[in-house]
Design goal:
The chain is of the alpha+beta class and 94 residues long. It is 24% helix and 17% strand. The protein has two domains: 39 residues, no CATH class; 44 residues, no CATH class. A two-stranded antiparallel sheet has the order 1-2.
Length: 94
């Protein structure tokens, strides 16, 4: 599988093939979640966009966009880069 990506700046986030295993799926008794073929296929064919800094995502349980916040836990190269990443991964938080 080929993935064509275009950098928007000189220091784009790394993109790596996603792992086929997931901790939350391993936690099911007898790893039952892996028996769902569409879910297993999706896990094996996905990509991870790695955030270059640690972030925290807070959700208060509500349904509004204001109920989800994303914040950097360490200095980031630029606020624009952080916002772009957060908007991509958590569009409801923008």
């Amino acid at each position: 599988m080929k993935l064509h990506c275009f950098a928007l700046n000189s220091d784009p986030p790394k993109i790596v093939p996603a792992r086929a295993s997931r901790e939350w799926m391993d936690d099911f008794s007898d790893r039952h979640a892996y028996r769902c073929l569409p879910l297993s296929i999706a896990n094996a064919h996905g990509w991870d966009i790695l955030c270059p800094i640690a972030v925290a995502v807070d959700w208060n349980g509500g349904r509004r966009t204001e109920d989800l916040t994303v914040r950097a836990l360490q200095p980031c190269p630029t606020e624009e880069q952080f916002r772009r990443f957060a908007d991509l991964i958590f569009p409801a938080a923008s």
